[in-house]
Each structure stands twice: as structure tokens, then as C-alpha cells.
Amino acid sequence: MWYRLFKHVLLGPLLRLLGRPEIEGLHHVPDSGPVIIAANHLAFIDSLYLALVLPRRVTFLAKMEYFTGTGLKGRCTRWFYTVAGQVPVDRTGGSAAADALAAATRILESGGVWAIHPEGTRSPDGRIYRGRTGTLRVAIATGAPVIPVVLSGTDRVNPRGSRRWRFAKVRVGFGAPRYYGAADHHHPRAATDELMRDLAARAGRPYVDRYAATFAHDRTQVRSA
Questions:
Q1: For residues 105 and 102, what is the distance between their CA atoms, to the nearest angstrom?
Q2: pLDDT band at 96 (very low <50, low <70, confident <90, very high)
């Protein structure tokens, strides 16, 4: 109930007003059955726009910190992510990656839609960065199709480092589904690199064969030197 209420009443109309989303290729997303949405990552609100434009309910994996905060803000955050259907995942322990993949697998085995940003964090400069292999490992294990999605304009609606949302044109483009099987079992890295290069080409943005988190860390080190 809350998912639909946020999408159609409480938050969705504001997102439509701010971003006036233009959608392409939505017909590539199957009406039923498991599917993986793999999108580039520009801003915090990327997940909100994906949930807004997809007719099916979407589930994301969210870091555990969103569910363990204290005080009024912590309780409100926990409530929002819970009613929005996000699944908490502990990313700090040694088994964090395995737990995340298991959670994603459960979503798909129940016939759901799992959305993921393979870059793992927001792009620091709009370029497309190297993807984590978890997306492809889950796709290979479950047989669920992967829909590549290119987002643009969300970083102008929700600029990095700003709490204010602004008016800007948002575009969401869905590509044809990709299928992976036993032949890809030993090559998740190569398949992931191909997926990310395809996203970069479709977005018209440079591809960086390096993790975005590492790049952001280097920039922080330079500023603090």
C-alpha cells in the first residue's frame, strides 16, 4: 500500500513535476517474471525515478545503516525504506557480498524485479565506471534477464552535495534484455565489463575502467593534502 501511495500520491507527482521524465524502451521490461534492472548511477534519486517509471514494483538492496539509525531522523528513514520495500544488507562483514547476492537471488526467485547500480556508488563526474560483478553472478545463477538502463538528468535535479531538488529534464532509457547462462559462469568479470561499456556507449559518456569509489577516495585525499 505505502509503495503505491508514495509512487502515485506522496512523492511521484513531485518527481514528475521536477524531472518531466522522458522514457524510452520500456517495452523491453517483461510484464511478469524475474528481471534485473542494471542502471548507471548519477544521484541519490536514481532509484526513485526507476521506481516511478517502472509499472512493476521494484526492490533494491539498501545498506544496513538506513535501518539502524537512531532518533527521529533514524526512525523516519527506517520506516521509509521498509515501507518502500527495500531489503537491508550488511556491507561491512566478511560475508557481506554473499549475503547481498543471496538477498537478490531471493527477490528474483519470487518472480520480482531487482534493481541495481553495478557501479556500487554514484559517479563522481558523470562518467560510467567499472561495475561490480555481483549483478552478473546473480543473473548467471538465476537465468533472469538483465535490462541495461541509462539515466540522465537526475544529477541536475539532485546535484551531488546539495539537499535541494531542482527542475531539470530526466531521461530513462531501457535497452533490450541480455541473457546469461552456463557459458558465462567462468567469465562474470568480462561480462560485467561488456555491460558497463554498453551503458557508457548508450549514454554517450566516457567509460572509466576503474571503480568509482576508488576515484572518489582519491579526490578526497587530494583535497585533504
A1: 5
A2: low
